[in-house]
Amino acid sequence: MDMTEDLGYALEMAEKAGDLTLGYFQRTSLKIEEKRDDSPVTEADRKAEALIRKGLEERFPQDGIFGEEFGEKPSLNGRRWILDPIDGTRSFIHGVPLYGVMIALEVDRVQQLGVIHFPALGEMFYAEQGGGAFLNGDEIHVSGVANLRDATVVFTEKEYLLDPESSHPVDRLRHSAGLVRGWGDCYGHMLVAAGRAEVAVDKIMSPWDCAAIIPIITEAGGLCFDYLGERTIYGEGLVSANATIGEELCREL
């Protein structure tokens, strides 16, 4: 694919931030704090976001920046970068390599590109609107699985399993899917993008959790929507799915 300046720089910053996080990964002396929402944050989260923000502010001074750890810098031109320096902080804290560095660019509130880097796995997923989705330079596509009996559904929060009587179409998947596994956070959604799973479910999401996922799933041929069936980073949760199963779910919402 022909890479724009935006995507090229996002990839560069994701790699630099990922290298920084590896310096803290599986460190026994890692400093951990609790935020006001009871979610954990580490010094690696803050330093990685600070690194990305500094780079973006120098390269694109009029662009806005919205990050999990340091809030929002207003945009002067309709462009806004959305950052999650470590998605899957709990995995990171426990030494599990399924955490990701997430960078998205939103233009006039539409997510134009997404980069998700898994430093401990050596995997870089990325996409830009109209240009396809890629993993380490190779184009990727969602699977063609159409039958739920053959589908793999992955999820993040234990709440997905704690309401067995829920009649919501997404929640019912856990009863009909061939395989249900707790491979969560952005890693689960990238399993869908690469055709390794058919559906990823997150019942609790913030904009920085969603923004980089949506363009990658979409360019890989899949669908992203919240629990109401809307394509938004501001809704209730996020579901990523291959096209066939995703369209069926959306018809029920």
Automatic annotation (TrEMBL):
InterPro entries membership: His_9_proposed, Inositol_monoP_metal-BS, Inositol_monophosphatase-like
Record EC number: 3.1.3.15
Required cofactor(s): Mg(2+)
Chain residues that bind Mg(2+): 68, 84, 86-87, 209
Family matches, as Pfam families: Inositol_P (PF00459)
Gene3D superfamilies noted in UniProt: 3.40.190.80, Fructose-1,6-Bisphosphatase, subunit A, domain 1 (3.30.540.10)
Catalytic activity annotation: L-histidinol phosphate + H2O = L-histidinol + phosphate
Keywords for this protein: Amino-acid biosynthesis, Histidine biosynthesis, Hydrolase, Magnesium, Metal-binding
One Gene Ontology MF term: inositol monophosphate 1-phosphatase activity
Biological pathway: Amino-acid biosynthesis; L-histidine biosynthesis; L-histidine from 5-phospho-alpha-D-ribose 1-diphosphate: step 8/9
GO terms for biological process, alphabetical: inositol metabolic process; L-histidine biosynthetic process; signal transduction
EC category name: hydrolase
Similarity comment: family membership: Belongs to the inositol monophosphatase superfamily.
Protein's name according to its UniProt entry: Histidinol-phosphatase
Organism field: Prosthecochloris vibrioformis (Chlorobium vibrioforme)
